[in-house]
From TrEMBL:
Species of the source: Cerrena zonata
GO terms for MF: GTPase activator activity; small GTPase binding
Name of the protein in its database record: Rab-GAP TBC domain-containing protein
Domain Rab-GAP TBC: 1-191
Chain ranges passing through the membrane: none
């Protein structure tokens, strides 16, 4: 379903993965594959869905497939002068759980070519587009959740402080696996607008925790590193092997309750209007 929903707008051949992996392997054998990038890849893999034990370095059953997919992706990106972006290992891993590397590579390439994801993965060349997406998010937050919006403004916290962390891994670093799987189902079908709807829902679930008087504490909470919440989780004996926001009790059910509640004010027409205003060339 994901493969059909994402499509192949890039018109990549079914052998695209094989060709890019062959180039990567030649570079690895010749010692010309950048060692710094290999380091980034290994570090990214080491933090990818650790509770599933599928991608554990050197011994996980899907470790080599994931590394191959990421090396092939680096080669494909190098043709555009783009480098590695930490977080992509989570996306590749989620695809590998659902399909073989070759079709997974095609889905990943096309999924990350959707404009919002391409912008966040585009480095300095897409900085202006990323800023436009921040303004769109701020507008939607102000319209739908004004208390959170004004609290963030008071603390001078922009979407840049948390949105890239969520989007670069498509929430897999912060939300439980089951919640992410459900988000991905809708995301594949509906596209960029659902990315923002899910992100707003995450803030909605966290809302009661967001009114710290101290900016540092608020940023720690958004990073999933709030010491008080961690201590409560440990005291309660909870096993924390999901996303970072598991310490706050964020799960599939609570998240979807917020997404459903947004029907009262979320309008696709508003999203379309904001895209046309901020990114008129799309």
């Amino acid at each position: 379903m994901w493969q059909s929903a994402v499509g192949n707008d890039l018109a990549l051949s079914k052998d695209a993965f094989k060709a890019c992996l062959a180039r990567a392997n030649r570079a690895l054998a010749a010692g010309t594959f950048p060692t710094t990038v290999l380091g980034f890849i290994e570090d990214d893999i080491n933090t990818t869905l650790p509770s599933l034990h599928l991608f554990t370095s050197g011994k996980g059953p899907l470790y080599q497939d994931l590394k191959d997919m990421l090396c092939a992706w680096v080669v494909a990106r190098s043709d555009e002068g783009l480098g590695y972006v930490t977080g992509v290992a989570k996306i590749a891993a989620m695809l590998l759980i659902n399909m073989a590397p070759a079709p997974g590579f095609l889905v990943m390439r096309n999924l990350l070519e959707r404009h919002c994801m391409r912008s966040f993965y585009g480095g300095l060349s897409s900085k202006d587009d990323v800023e436009a997406y921040y303004r769109i998010f701020d507008t939607l937050l102000a319209d739908g959740m004004p208390k959170i919006y004004f609290n963030f403004k008071q603390h001078q916290i922009s979407p840049a402080a948390y949105l890239p962390d969520w989007l670069l891994s498509l929430f897999l670093e912060h939300l439980p696996f089951e919640a992410c799987a459900r988000i991905w189902d809708v995301l594949m079908l509906e596209g960029d607008s659902f990315l923002y709807r899910a992100a707003l829902a995450v803030l909605g679930v966290l809302e009661t925790r967001l009114f710290f008087p101290d900016k540092k504490e608020l940023l720690e909470l958004l990073k999933g590193e709030n010491k008080a919440a961690l201590e409560v989780a440990r005291r309660d004996g909870r096993v924390l092997d999901g996303g970072k926001y598991e310490i706050y009790g964020v799960d599939e059910e609570t998240l979807w309750e917020r997404i459903d509640a947004m029907d009262e004010w979320w309008r696709e027409s508003t999203w379309t209007r904001l895209i046309q205003r901020e990114l008129p060339d799309l």
